[in-house]
Amino acid sequence: MVYTNTNKQPLVLVVDDEVEILGEVATVLAGAGYVCQCCNNAEDALRFAEANTPDLILSDINLGGHSGLRMCEELKKQSHLRDVPVMFLSGAQIPDIIRRSHAVGGAYYLRKPFDPEVLLELVDKALWMPHLVRSHEQVAEAALHATN
Question: How far is CA 86 from CA 39, 58, 135, 138, in A?
Answer without folding.
Answer: 15, 6, 20, 23
